[in-house]
Specification:
By secondary structure, the chain is of the alpha/beta class. It has a single domain (43-250), classed as 3-Layer(aba) Sandwich (Rossmann fold), CATH 3.40.50. Helix content is 40%, strand content 17%. The chain has ten helices and seven strands. It has helices at 4-17, 19-26, 45-58, 69-73, 89-97, 110-122, 135-141, 172-181, 195-207, 231-238; strands at residues 79-83, 102-106, 128-131, 148-154, 182-192, 211-213, 244-250. Helix 5 (89-97) links the parallel strand 1 and strand 2 (102-106). The model is unreliable at 14-30 (pLDDT under 50). The protein binds S-adenosylmethionine.
């Protein structure tokens, strides 16, 4: 399983090992934010088994076709979407605590997908589906306009070095895309323990004229008590980092 520390090393190595994608990164459109590194993570036997046996049941294949939520979940309910769920710590808790809502989790990291699938089965959750794909493309192609009740972005990769800032998923184009997928008054909730990224998010979010800060402008929100402490958050707290929550409503 990839630890938060391994993530740091991957990010440091990213430019060198991904020079092929540098040209793509120059065109910063919503389609080309390269916010992740696909690592050759080792799958545990249990994760591999979960992917083989449970992905057909709980996974949604990437497609250029917009989803029909009622066909996917067999009912009509508000849909929350989590971007980059890691191992699914928060996703599974939210789904368990809110059985009246449906959840789509999007993650590119295969061991995390396997881990989340194991959790879905262990907790017998019927209201979660997983897409193993780039969340930007999922939002663009699979998510109907004005359809989401909430989008969650917890502890996204901070891409700490200046030359990597273009890899940060929170960019103007990304926020425009997310807000076009949110229903009216629906919420985008971001959290980070990386101070510089928190300021970056705050600036970009406040500049987005289709999103309205639920705290006052240029301010962070209270951490909602229900938000699960993920292992990336735990690591940040261990390192003495402050955690920032940013909640914005689609206006
Ligand atoms: C720093 S980790 C945080 C994971 C989790 N949210 C947590 O708090 O433990 C960021 C995660 O986002 C995923 N990720 C980054 N960009 C992504 C994208 N465009 N689409 C899907 N997943 C992405 C990475 O694979 C990684 O698992």
């Amino acid at each position: 399983m990839v630890t938060p520390d391994q993530f740091d090393i991957d990010q440091q190595n990213a430019t060198e090992s991904n020079n092929q994608s540098a040209a793509q990164d120059q065109r910063l459109t919503s389609q080309s934010i390269r916010s992740f590194v696909i690592r050759n993570g080792r799958l545990t036997k249990a994760q591999a088994q979960a992917i083989e046996q449970l992905l057909p049941q709980f996974g949604l294949s990437f497609s250029n076709q917009a989803l029909d939520y009622s066909a996917v979940f067999g009912r009509t309910a508000p849909v929350w979407l989590e971007i980059g769920f890691g191992n699914g710590d928060a996703l599974l808790d939210m789904a368990q605590q809110n059985p009246e809502f449906d959840f789509i989790g999007v993650e590119v990291h295969e061991p995390g997908v396997g881990q989340a699938l194991m959790g879905i089965q262990a907790r017998q959750l019927s209201n979660v589906r997983i897409v193993q794909h780039d969340a930007v493309e999922v939002l663009e192609k699979m998510i109907p306009a004005n359809s989401l009740a909430r989008v969650l972005l917890f502890f996204p990769d901070p891409w700490r070095k200046k030359r990597h800032f273009k890899r940060r998923i929170v960019q103007k184009e990304f926020l425009q895309l997310v807000s076009a997928r949110l229903a009216e008054n629906a919420i985008l909730h971001c959290a980070t323990d990386w101070e510089d990224y928190a300021h970056w998010m705050l600036e970009k979010l406040d500049q987005c004229d289709t999103l309205s800060n639920l705290a006052k402008p240029n301010d962070y929100s209270e951490r909602p008590a229900w938000r699960t402490q993920t292992r990336f958050e735990q690591r940040g707290i261990r390192l003495g980092h402050k955690v920032y929550d940013l909640l914005y409503a689609r206006c």
